[in-house]
Amino acid sequence: MKKIFLTLTGLCFLLNIQAQQPVAGTTYYLPKTVLRFSFLIEKTTYTPGQFAAYSGKYLKKMDVRLEPSTTYRIAAIRMTPTAMPDSAKQYTLTLDKKLSITEIDRDPSGILLAINAKGKSIVEPEAFRPVPQKPLPNPRNYMNEDILTAGSTAKMAELCAQDIYEIRDSRAQLSRGQADFMPKDGTQLKIMMDNLDTQEAALLQTFEGTTHKDTTETILTFIPTQSVERQLFFRFSKWTGITDPDDLGGSPYYISITDEQNIPENAPAAGDEKKSKDDFGLNVNIPDKIKVTLYKYEQPLKTYELWAGQFGKTESLSSELFGKKTTTRLLLNPLTGSIEKIESEMLK
């Protein structure tokens, strides 16, 4: 009798384990819309010339700066939406032999893209590529022997200024047709004028200095979860560029999120009703539209409108779409998780 009791106990234990085992299925996420801001930051570097201190004396230029400087400015702002898995919307799609599901497409992060079809992945914008800049001419390549062998910086500056005036005089004579050696045609004239321009520009660098502009791209992301009014996003300094929000050395930039609430409030939300027997874990987003505004101080800079998956609600789809008699191809929007295309056909 004791042996029979142990056998029945073991059988009950095994049945209990089988009841606790998870049902075969595929786990997936619905997406959460993320705001991807691209800032093109222009960096301007000024380097004073070798003879900057003599600009006023020899060239009558009184506004030449004597100290190097580096400044930054925001040249352009672009916002493109992207997506990330919404941890609050993780579901398991229960697979059953009775369902006509042959393919489930998810992106590498687990976001559901399509069923019985190949979904569309998010196309990230191309990274910014600055235009190659032409190197500046070396002024020493255009200095004559007298300039290079002068005994002092002041004398070098004086002789360099004299050369600049002679170049300007030669260009004026060519343009008036009074030069001793006039070119034979317009092509030769252009070549000669271009050479004089290059020489003057190179020698002027020794007084006026050089200004180099370099543009880089900085990416900042913001994940909207609710309506906010002028939340601090980042700070920007003319002297250091984009800084952290707690760096008071930069000017504040704010962001506002407005939920436009296009979905009626009386629409039933997923989970409010009793779970249907046809619910097999397939959920989609019904996104809502939001308005995004970027501010500098009180001044609006950019305003965008877009659909966001974390706003609005989710809806459960019935397993009848994938029954024995019907097969369905379902494509979801990779940014919002909403239905982008659904096609059903009867099975023979």
Walk me through what this model shows.
The protein has helices at 2-20, 55-59, 145-148, 153-176, 186-208; strands at 25-47, 69-94, 104-106, 112-115, 210-222, 228-237, 241-243, 251-259, 279-296, 299-318, 326-332, 339-346. A five-stranded antiparallel beta sheet has the order 7-6-8-9-10, with no helix packed on it. It has a four-stranded antiparallel beta sheet with strand order 3-4-11-12, with no helix packed on it. Strands 2-1-5 form a three-stranded antiparallel beta sheet. By secondary structure, it is an alpha+beta fold. It is 22% helix and 41% strand. The protein starts with a helix and ends with a strand. Strand 9 (279-296) and strand 10 (299-318) form a beta hairpin. The model is unreliable at 1-23 and 267-274 (pLDDT under 50). The protein is built from five helices and twelve strands.
Stretches with pLDDT under 50, minimum 5 residues: 1-23, 267-274
Sheet bearing the most strands, described?
5 strands, antiparallel
Query: What value does the average pLDDT take?
Result: 87
- The N- to C-terminal Cα distance equals 57 Å
Oligomeric nature of the chains? single chain
Question: Key terms for this structure?
Answer:
4-stranded antiparallel beta sheet; 348 residues; elongated; 5 helices
In short:
By secondary structure, the chain is an alpha+beta fold. The chain has helices spanning 2-20, 55-59, 145-148, 153-176, 186-208, and strands at 25-47, 69-94, 104-106, 112-115, 210-222, 228-237, 241-243, 251-259, 279-296, 299-318, 326-332, 339-346.
